């Protein structure tokens, strides 16, 4: 699928969920079986030679393709969830949002030092959510951490939050 076709099939919802936000509705990609399969392929093509052992999906839109990507890469899947949702022992990281703070958690036994981790989310905006997960994953001291988004809103410069050598890949830059 060309990037242009991808772009034209992405639905933009103005003023959702609040006025001023141009919401990128990725469900308009996922509803089409060819697009869905091609998106999984596009992501996996980037990482297929990198020895990924765990895919971390960020709640909630990072869960949608996260599992499919993990299966295709022959890796395990780890959910990074909002505070209080995971049933076993967790480690957590808090981060600032526009209003107040949020906390994200991963099960304490979900990642080990021999892992090569791919963290996946749907969209990079300010980068705050991914930065919290990136820090959290690094506390497990895995061999390597890669970051992946389907969409990057380049104007918001979220990518600049990450240390310069961090490998950040996106399928579509807008
Ligand atoms: P941020 O922490 O600012 O990078 O925000 C990233 C999270 O917010 C992602 O998980 C997205 O699901 C969601 N998000 C932020 N802005 C948008 C947008 N314009 N359209 C769709 N989702 C968004």
How does this structure look, described?
With 174 residues, the protein is an alpha/beta fold. The chain has 5 helices and 9 strands, in the order H-E-E-H-H-E-H-E-E-E-E-H-E-E. It has helices spanning 3-8, 27-30, 33-47, 62-73, 128-138; strands at 11-14, 22-25, 54-58, 76-82, 90-96, 101-107, 116-124, 144-152, 167-173. The strands form 2 sheets. The protein has a 7-stranded mixed sheet with strand order 5-6-4-3-7-8-9, with helices on both faces. Strands 1-2 form a two-stranded antiparallel ribbon. Helix 3 (33-47) packs across helix 4. The protein is globular, with a radius of gyration of 16 Å. The model has no long low-confidence stretch (mean pLDDT 96). The structure holds adenosine monophosphate (AMP). Adenosine monophosphate is lined by residues 21-24, 61, 121-129, 158.
Secondary structure blueprint with pairings:
Blueprint: H1 3-8, E1 11-14, E2 22-25, H2 27-30, H3 33-47, E3 54-58, H4 62-73, E4 76-82, E5 90-96, E6 101-107, E7 116-124, H5 128-138, E8 144-152, E9 167-173
Parallel strand pairs: 3-4, 3-7, 7-8, 8-9
Antiparallel strand pairs: 1-2, 4-6, 5-6
Helix pairs in contact: 3-4
Bound molecules: adenosine monophosphate.
């Amino acid at each position: 699928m060309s990037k242009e076709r991808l772009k034209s099939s992405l639905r933009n919802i103005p003023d959702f969920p609040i006025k001023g936000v141009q919401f990128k509705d990725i469900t308009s990609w996922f509803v089409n079986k060819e697009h869905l399969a091609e998106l999984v392929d596009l992501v996996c093509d980037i990482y297929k030679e990198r020895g990924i052992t765990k895919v971390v999906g960020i709640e909630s839109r990072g869960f949608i393709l996260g599992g499919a990507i993990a299966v295709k890469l022959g890796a395990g899947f780890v959910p990074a969830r909002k505070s209080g949702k995971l049933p076993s022992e967790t480690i957590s990281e808090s981060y600032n949002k526009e209003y107040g703070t949020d906390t994200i958690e991963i099960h304490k036994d979900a990642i080990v030092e021999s892992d090569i981790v791919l963290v996946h989310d749907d969209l990079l905006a300010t980068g705050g959510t991914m930065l919290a997960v990136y820090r959290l994953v690094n506390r497990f001291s895995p061999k390597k951490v890669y970051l992946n988004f389907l969409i990057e809103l380049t104007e918001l410069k979220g990518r600049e939050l990450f240390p310069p050598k961090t490998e950040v890949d996106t399928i579509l830059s807008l």
